[in-house]
Every structure is written in C-alpha cells, then in structure tokens.
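hi!! sorry for the late reply, been swamped w classes. u asked for the two structures so here they r. pasted raw, havent cleaned anything up. first the sequence of the first protein and right below it the tokens
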Amino acid sequence: MPLLKQVLEQYPKTVKLAFKNFPLRNHQFAFMAAVAAMAAESQGKFWEFHDLLFKDFDKLNDRKFTEIAGALNLDQSAWQEKMKDPRISDLIRQDFTEGVKSGVRGTPSVFINGRLLKNRSMAGFRAMIDKELNSKNRKE
C-alpha cells in the first residue's frame, strides 16, 4: 500500500492531503503528464491516472497518456477536450510557482504544516505528525 495512503488511514480525522503539481523542467513530458492527470480528475480518476504516470515515469509520451486514459476507461473525447482547458495549465503553473517559493527542489516533496518532511518513511511521517498534533494540543 502506498505510504501516503497508509498515513491517511492511520490519521483519518487529523491529516488532510493537499496535492500540488511540480512538473520538473528537465522532464520533457512532465507538464503534459500533469495536464493529463488533472484532466482525468473531471472524470474522478486523478489519483488512478497519477499513480500510473509515476509507475511509468521513464516511459511517458503522448501515446502513453492516451494508453493510461484508455486503461482507466475515460471518455477519451471529453478527456482530450479537458486537456485544452487553460485553467488546468494555469493551476499547474501556480502550483509550480508556490513550490519554488516553498523550497521544493524535486518530486515527490512532502510538507507537514508548512515544514518539509525529510524522513519520508512511515516512522518519519508519524514523528512529524505526532509532534505537530502535540504542539497544536498544547496551544489549545
């Protein structure tokens, strides 16, 4: 089971996941991969599309995006039309800019309450989340 899913299952009422795009500039297909995944969101398939992209990150191209959309049984014409929506590209650029300002250097990057998580093991997540929760409880 993916680590983020484990974290969300372990902290169902106290942890919220916010995803931000950060397409690496040195990856030829990263921006279009982000667009394709965001377009899949309109059919409720963002995470499935996202996970398949990361599974084959080194094999990405336009044909692969279409293959993934087919594997997920997306309405191909609606998905392709959604990929042309300028709001998706604008959101991805905004996410990228926010990431740069926050110190993101690569993907994946994880922040907990605005602090970069360096130890991305389950133990690292637990330690930082519990520290934040304890800090919050002391303030209340």
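now the second protein. again sequence first, tokens right under
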Amino acid sequence: MTDKLTFSLVSPEAELFAGDVDQVDIPGTEGDFSVLPKHAPFMAAIRTGTIIVRVDGVETQYFVQGGFADVTPAGLTVLAEKASLLSELSAETIQAEVTAATAALANLNGDAALAMQQNLDGLKALASA
C-alpha cells in the first residue's frame, strides 16, 4: 500500500472532508502550496481560492475563504472560515460574494484592506473560471 496523508477540511458549519489522500493543493496567503504524505510540519494562513484534493487519481475541488492549514506528523487539517464543494456554487452566489467584497473593500484600509483584496481576487478568479 502506498503512503497516504490524513486530511480533514472543516468549516464552522461542517466537516466537509475527512480521510486519507495522496495530495492536497492549498491557496496560501504567501503563495499556493501542496501537501504530500510525510510533509514537514508547518502552519499557514489560507486565502480565498480552491483547495484541490487528490485521491487515487480523482480530484475534488473545494472553495474556501480564509482560515488556516496545519500540517503535523498526524496529517493535515484545514480550518476554513467558509468552505463548500466547488460544484455546489452557482454563478449567482459567486457574483453576490464579489459585490459584497467590493463594497466592504471601499471602507477598509491597512491589513484589513489587504485581506479583503485577497478575498476579492480569489472570488473574481473563480467568477471568471
């Protein structure tokens, strides 16, 4: 049997995924990264974007907005502020999120504005995909 990575994706509403995987690709605030079995431990903030979970040649995509990825010897846990299966999102839902983020950005500055701009960039990328 090949090595697997134990992975859990959790949002405030539910645990969206729990199981053994081959690889997880994550949109980090400092750049995208992949986690494989036996990865070195670390913690990273995640930005709005798509997490790709690879298991036995099959890819599943989840849309996330904010949160943290924690890699330990036991596996990878992503604690997302918001998360859902990408296939469950409608164009209308995404556009509503873009509109709300654009309005919120107008009233922010500093680190809060940077975080909202990253959120907006991720939403726009998803809307144009």
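hope this helps!! also noticed smth abt the second:
Residues 110-128 form the longest helix (19 residues).
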